[in-house]
Input
Amino acid sequence: MLREVVATRYITPLREGGSLPGLVEADDRGTYVLKFTGAGQGRKTLVAEVVCGELARRLGLRVPRLVTVDLDPVLGLGEPDEQVQDLLKSSGGTNLGMDFLTRAIGFDPLAFEVSPEEAGRIVWFDALINNVDRSWRNPNLLMWHGEPWLIDHGATMIWHHHWPGARTSAAKPYDASDHALARFGPDVATAAAALAPLITEELLAEVTAEIPDVWLTDEPGFDTPDALRRAYAEPLLARAAGIHERIEGIK
Output
């Protein structure tokens, strides 16, 4: 399971994202970007962040470290913004934190260069998880110490919003025509040869085991959290073998 920390101070809201994440300090003296269970997108967004973030890490891609953050809603009592107060009040308990990358800057595809090899690995990964939110308009990439880091995977695996249609949804191609890295000539074939064999039942079981049980309870159609974990793994396993042949919009 992800390492657990306790929020000790709510610093400020981060208004760049639609879910209104916040910056917090924790009892390990770390500073984290906190994503809330009470946000409009709900706990499935946090599940997607965990599955995709931890999978990316195991594939050698750069992602901020993830932790679970225990939040006491009392930390928000001094926050003057009523929207933020309501969010904190509705998010007591287990939330998701990611390392705050100090002095990181947003990725601009016109200002930075990415090699075809690295672009290929990122595009292949986004195709695997069906990431619809890494466009040139909103790259969801940070440059930190001169290298690109992947963030914000809440808008992925859209099939988990309708499990009866998951198999059909997961079989669809991936449109990369608006991808932030499309202009760098991503070498998807080489990426697939290196990464697809790593996507095994064992790896996906390890990744999905990181999801807190509390985010997997009461899901219609599933009796146990582990049954839902297997449902998350199955489309990814099926998609890995051939998704590189169904990426559209890049040369």
Remarks:
- Residues 16 and 240 are 32 Å apart (CA to CA).
- The chain has a mean pLDDT of 95.
- The chain has seven helices and ten strands.
- The longest helix spans residues 43-58.
